[in-house]
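Summary of Year 1 activities. Much of the first year was spent building the evaluation harness for sequence design. The harness presents a backbone, in tokenized form, and records the residue chosen at every position. We chose the following record to illustrate the format because it has been used consistently in internal testing since the harness was completed.
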């Protein structure tokens, strides 16, 4: 997640986009220590544009993933630099509804991802 945060969100023009992270297909996760979770939330918050009103939706179906996502949400909300509104959902459709996008619109309007390559 640190690599994604640093690579994707430092690209010009990406700031201010709504974001969705879907953990539905994640089969294993090593719960991070609280300090590491706080570091990720602090890094993410420091990269929010000051005027941002963007939303960040996390889809987490399992109880473990949901709990970790809620912990991230709480730590992010406590950071005074944070401008994004974070919410955690059990289904992608609930997350997309909260973001105000259809499934088609959400994927068509997504910001560049860490593995994306610019067209020649």
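For this record, the design step produced the sequence shown next.
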């Amino acid at each position: 997640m640190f690599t994604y945060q640093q690579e994707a969100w430092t690209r010009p023009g990406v700031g201010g986009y709504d974001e969705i992270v879907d953990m539905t297909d994640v089969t294993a996760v090593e719960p991070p220590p609280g300090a590491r979770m706080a570091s990720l939330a602090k890094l993410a918050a420091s990269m929010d544009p000051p005027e941002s009103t963007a939303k960040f939706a996390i889809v987490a179906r399992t109880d473990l993933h949901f709990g970790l996502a809620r912990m991230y949400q709480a730590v992010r909300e406590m950071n005074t630099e944070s401008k994004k509104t974070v919410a955690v959902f059990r289904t992608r459709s609930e997350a997309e509804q909260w973001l105000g996008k259809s499934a088609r619109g959400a994927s068509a309007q997504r910001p560049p991802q860490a593995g994306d390559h610019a067209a020649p």
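Residues 2-6+15-108 form one domain. Quantitative recovery figures across the full test set are reported in Table 2.
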